[in-house]
Amino acid sequence: MSRPTQAFxxxxxxxxxxxxxxxxxxxxxxxxxxxxxxxGHGAILVANAIQSKVxxxxxxxxxxxxxLREADITTPIVLLEGSFQPDELSVIAHQDLQMVLHTxxxxxxxxxxxxxxxxxxxxxxxxxxxxxGFAPNEIERxxxxxxxxxxxxxxxxxxxxxxCADDRHDNTTKKQMDIFKRLxxxxxxxxxxxxxxxxxxxxxQTHADWVRPGxxxxxxxxxxxxxxxxxxxxxxxxxxxxxxxxxxxRKGEAIGYGATWRCPQTMPVGVVAIGxxxxxxxxxxxxxxxxxxxxxxxxxxxxxxxxxxxxxxSQPNARxxxxxxxxxxxxxxxxxANLAGTIAYELLCHVSSRxxxxxxx
Length: 361
Ligand SMILES: Cc1ncc(COP(=O)(O)O)c(C=O)c1O
Fold this sequence. Notes:
8-stranded parallel β-barrel; alpha/beta; Lyase, Ornithine Decarboxylase, Chain A, domain 1; 2 domains
């Protein structure tokens, strides 16, 4: 039997979450963000499941896009960081990919390139994130040069990214929206995109023409103060394993690396086949819940590379081989992330290639 560490990917939950996107943004086109292996859920698996219901996919870079094209995904694909090297441009054109344009170098290479066909461009404006994009006062000049270039397909789209939409009370989003709206109006932009999941769920005025859901598709909340269920979302990933050992230890005996936790009484301690090499967070502290046979029990001691140890005092009938859920239904990934001092995005993306992705489709 092979190692039982698996991530079950619930396609029905994914479809539910996409419907939630469409309920929030009924007239907008949907660019589903499936970069980083669809936030750990399997980019090809996710793309196949939703390609007929979305208008485009977004990935980080050319390599991620080519993996999808090689799997016969023909849906438009946007490269969120655009090109890194000038020689990527001919592949981008040839593979019918769209690129975010955010640096003067990319701009220069695009205008100089000898391309087999014009490239669709998402011109990125920095409305306040101060990460990628041209300053708002540079956009008109660049936009006009792009418009006049035979290397660039029409229409030229405008994109920006929200910095603080995960906090429903932060004023930054309003400021970003104002800058974005002013530009789209003054340049008469036909295709504009600003909203990520937090924008889609919490800031209807950010929806523009295209929405770009990432985390909400996977059934985790983008907000600091809610979990999936509060937002009408269903977790897509159910990270699971089994108990591979159960031992009774005497009062005072230490468990795991560093002997950081000692048994307060004679008790059963279970070992679960999952560790930080699988993507379970090493910083999950003692007390972090896992579900053994559907019931919460606390993790004890340090997370190892391949294993964790759990307190089975409340589950005296637990047996080797019994199922363990690390996050998913009834155990929100947001809760585990919070305890481990991180965010759901990171936990989902970090599920490693050693973990088998399984689905019921
Ligand atoms: C440019 C861009 N748009 C959209 C998204 C999706 O964001 P979220 O997962 O918060 O919906 C991301 C993710 O980081 C992004 O970088």
